[in-house]
């Protein structure tokens, strides 16, 4: 575990947060039996792109069960439905939330295709897609996808709280499907369904609800921009919505080091804006924070690792009236402890933050990248080719990836 402190403005906080070991939320799956058309039916024979201009099949990386290697499988070309978009995937980020699923630490429907932060090119719109979506995302558009794919219709989406979208949690995270209760992925060999972690981005094509996409300008590269849809998206949500960061706030990010070589990760955090770094393997993180803040603690602490110990350190590191923001996911059985009396008496606020809000925030995040507010290329430290997807998650598990990693798909 490690820590950084910064007198905060968004420009100098985003990049260190992006590099940390946070991940995203998943809930216990409820698996349902679906009526799947036979492999030879017209349902599958109509799987094509732009009236047959592209192959009717694709490759994807499939997760079959906890601690099993990811495998490459052939799938029928995914078919978008109304207000959904078929995207030719160009790049997909490598994230700890996928790793939690792969290790069995967070249950998810299986078999499934993981990968949830992507860039790509619009290939096809689902039937009956509304005219505004057709106009906004014409075929050939470059896009980036958010891992929280809002339905746009539920009570939370209606209030602009896309990060709490009811359908996303009820269908995608609970069942591995899109919002009609069906997956868009079927194996070529036998037509059996394969579930989707978000859009199932570690595949040559993926289907994404249009509300989960925004345009990617030509000036931004596909590869590095893949992290905009989760790594940057999660950091932005924590800073802007959960912490409600203001100029002059002091902030500590706990969990920069993660597993593996903490020193290298700490030095990277310092290189991108941290004013102080603390190796919590060598000194008491909470005491050091108090020392650096005149005994008060920081205005905002962000926990990015998802461990009971770092959860407690986060709550202990904030000053009276401060905010402890939790973005790191934990093993499903992990529990955090908190000093209840201090929480009550000193008005300490503990806030969970899952991500940002796709429709309002993702365009802003893209603009921040486009204007150079943070350096995407500096954030991405390793790039893998598609065939190395399994190795990418092995490296992530072993802690050898210092910043963020991306798999190039096309």
What can you tell me about this protein's structure?
The chain has helices at residues 10-18, 42-45, 96-102, 131-136, 155-158, 166-175, 222-225, 231-242, 262-271, 285-292, 308-317, 340-345, 358-370, 376-379, 389-398, and strands at residues 2-7, 57-63, 71-76, 84-94, 112-113, 118-125, 142-145, 185-186, 193-196, 205-209, 213-215, 250-254, 276-279, 298-303, 318-326, 349-352, 380-385, 404-408. It has 410 residues and is of the alpha/beta class. The chain has 15 helices and 18 strands. The strands form three sheets. Strands 4, 6, 7, 10, 11, 17 and 18 form a seven-stranded mixed β-sheet that branches. The protein has a six-stranded mixed β-sheet with strand order 13-1-12-14-15-16, with helices on both faces. Residues 21-53 have low confidence and may be disordered.
Query: How much of the residues is beta strand, in percent?
Result: 15-25%
Low-confidence sequence ranges: 21-53
The helical percent reads: 25-40%
Let me know the average pLDDT.
87
Tell me about the biggest sheet?
A: 7 strands, mixed
- Cα end-to-end separation: 35 Å
Oligomer: single chain
How many helix segments? Answer: 15
Shape: globular
């Amino acid at each position: 575990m490690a820590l950084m402190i910064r007198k905060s403005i968004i420009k100098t906080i985003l990049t260190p947060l992006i590099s940390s070991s946070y991940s995203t939320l998943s809930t216990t799956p409820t698996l349902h039996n679906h009526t799947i058309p036979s492999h030879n039916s017209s349902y599958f024979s109509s799987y094509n792109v732009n009236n047959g201009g592209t192959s009717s099949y694709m490759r994807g990386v499939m997760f079959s069960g906890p601690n099993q290697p990811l495998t490459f499988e052939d799938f029928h070309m995914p078919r978008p439905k109304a207000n959904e978009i078929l995207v030719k995937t160009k790049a997909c980020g490598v994230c700890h939330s996928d790793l939690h699923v792969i290790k069995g630490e967070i249950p998810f429907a299986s078999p499934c295709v993981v990968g949830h932060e992507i860039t790509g090119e619009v290939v096809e719109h689902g039937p009956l897609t509304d005219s505004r979506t057709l106009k906004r995302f014409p075929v050939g558009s470059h896009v980036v996808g958010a891992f929280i794919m809002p339905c746009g219709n539920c009570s939370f989406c209606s209030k602009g709280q896309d990060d709490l979208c009811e359908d996303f949690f009820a269908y995608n995270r609970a069942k591995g499907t899109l919002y009609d209760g069906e997956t868009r992925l079927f194996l070529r060999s036998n037509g059996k369904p394969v579930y989707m972690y978000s859009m199932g981005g570690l595949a040559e094509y993926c289907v994404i609800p249009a509300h989960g996409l925004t345009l990617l300008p030509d000036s931004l590269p596909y590869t590095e921009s893949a992290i905009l849809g989760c790594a940057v998206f999660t950091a932005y949500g924590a800073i802007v919505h959960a912490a409600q960061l203001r100029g002059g706030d002091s902030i500590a990010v706990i969990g920069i080091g993660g597993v593996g070589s903490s020193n290298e990760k700490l030095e990277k955090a310092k290189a991108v804006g941290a004013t102080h770094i603390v190796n919590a393997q060598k000194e008491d993180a909470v005491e050091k924070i108090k020392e650096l803040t005149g005994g008060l603690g920081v205005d905002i602490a962000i926990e990015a690792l998802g461990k009971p110990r770092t959860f407690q350190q986060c709550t202990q590191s904030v000053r009276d009236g401060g905010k402890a923001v939790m973005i790191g996911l934990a093993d499903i059985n992990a529990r955090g402890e908190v000093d209840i009396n201090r929480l009550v008496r000193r008005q300490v606020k503990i806030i969970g933050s899952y991500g940002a809000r796709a429709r309002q925030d993702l365009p802003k995040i893209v603009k921040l990248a486009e204007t150079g507010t943070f350096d995407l290329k500096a954030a991405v430290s390793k790039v893998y080719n598609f065939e190395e997807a399994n190795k990418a998650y092995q490296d992530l598990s072993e802690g050898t990836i210092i910043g963020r990693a991306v798999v190039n798909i096309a």
